[in-house]
Amino acid sequence: MEAQAVKSNLVLILDYGSQYTHLITRRIRSLSVFSLCISGTSSLKSITDLNPSVIILSGGPHSVHAQDAPCFPDGFVEYVEKTGIFVLGICYGFQLIVQKLGGQVAIGEKQEYGRMTIEVVKDYGGLFKGKNIGDKQVVWMSHGDEAVKLPAGFEVVARSEQGGVAAVANPGRRFYGLQYHPEVTHSPEGMELLRHFLFDICDVSAGWKMEDVMEEEIKVIKGMVGPDDHVICALSGGVDSTVAATLVHKAIGDRLHCIFVDNGLLRYKEQERVMGTFERDLHLPVTCVDASVQFLSELKGVTDPEKKRKIIGKEFISIFDAFAHDLEKKLGTKPSYLVQGTLYPDVIESCPPPGSGRTHSHTIKSHHNVGGLPKDMKLKLIEPLKLLFKDEVRELGRILDVPVAFLKRHPFPGPGLAVRIPGDVTQGNALEILRQVDEIFIQAIKEGGIYDEIWQAFAVFLPIKTTGVQGDQRTHSNAVALRAVTSQDGMTADWYYF
Ligand SMILES: Nc1ncnc2c1ncn2[C@@H]1O[C@H](COP(=O)(O)OP(=O)(O)OP(=O)(O)O)[C@@H](O)[C@H]1O
């Protein structure tokens, strides 16, 4: 699919700070429609430049009556009406539409939170296509304010059990509104509604595919990197940097130069395993630097966790620095670009919690990825994954023939086993014991067929000693804790129940 075709089907989300905003973007992409999310207070120009077909105004923690309530820019309503853009407001976004188009929003008497039942009351505008008047469904509500008077031309198409307005439509002006959240799984029929809205009402076509993303990114990289330019990338053995490097390699071949550092804090046989994948399966040009002695001698005797991280960061920088200078000598020219595996959640703009005093919480994770290559190299960034979510990166990896087992690996922190050994990492044989325990634990989970159900499983070398029996002897030795958690996106986690 041509980039133009994707752009002409863009669903743009204006973010007003709801914790579910990213979910709307993901739900729409899961319908093979390209969706982007920008701040709800973006300028009109940044909205018109994107040329969206549909705009969704997200929910948010604010009241439309608050003095600093975020809102779309002046001229927004005129722009969408003139261009024929469809607009859907969700929760706060819906209340914004009501207030700005001449209706009235009041502090709700009903204040609906959690699971609610709504009923279709009118067949108008097609939001509830396939449903009959009187049909009920469970939805997720979370609002204090409520619409008490609708702007002219709007009709209520669904009401909550308590009589509150749950959904409205104004097909003539192409404005729609939902007081509930269709994007959360607690609204079981929410996806069906979004599907109807996009395909039946807005006539958007589904055609956004990861294959197209790959082709498009390769074109962009080829256009950006000149024929004599060289590019460097630090590979951790994790999914993000590996997929990013594989994509760039496909675009520019061996003008990409990767480095993988064995810092002495890696898992059992990690160096052999990841280098095998890089070289054998992906044919990536990778230099493996064994710097374990350097890292461990700097870490000797250090117990403070923050100090350990700083030392590890500094050592990484000095190794990357030496790598860049060696390359410069070898190539006769400085590398010009750096590949980073930055993902979309790192760059999305969103509103901060109310009362935080900030307009946006947006800061591109500056610590993200390497961030420590020599400043005098003035490297320009290549971030080919910056519009993708983690599961989309995995899909892209599959298309790029990154082995599936590799893509499904549990995440492993950059500072490695140093964060799993509280205290001095060089104490006795702590690293060796931890490597073995971790390997036995992970193998057992794999043999039990539950590795993919667990988001992350790991062992921690505890700084306490306990009494045990080995053979016929009593022992007094360190204990190791085992932990396994489940998570959707790494933002929150729960115990895994074995
Ligand atoms: N052992 C290593 N050798 C070379 N580079 C590394 C190493 N460990 C980390 N890095 C670099 O630092 C970045 C950040 O590491 P971190 O473990 O936080 O990764 P991440 O953001 O989860 O991404 P990834 O999935 O690529 O590991 C990596 O993407 C990689 O560029």
TrEMBL record:
Superkingdom as given in the UniProt entry: Eukaryota
Protein name: GMP synthase (glutamine-hydrolyzing)
Binding, ATP: 236-242
Keyword vocabulary terms for this entry: ATP-binding, Glutamine amidotransferase, GMP biosynthesis, Ligase, Nucleotide-binding, Purine biosynthesis
Pathway named in the protein's UniProt entry: Purine metabolism; GMP biosynthesis; GMP from XMP (L-Gln route): step 1/1
Protein EC: 6.3.5.2
GO CC, any one term: cytosol
Gene Ontology terms for molecular function: ATP binding; GMP synthase activity
Residue ranges constituting the GMPS ATP-PPase domain according to the UniProt record: 208-409
Listed PROSITE patterns: GATASE_TYPE_1 (PS51273), GMPS_ATP_PPASE (PS51553)
InterPro entries with a match to the protein in the record: Class_I_gatase-like, GATASE, GMP_synth_C, GMP_synth_GATase, GMPS_ATP_PPase_dom, Rossmann-like_a/b/a_fold
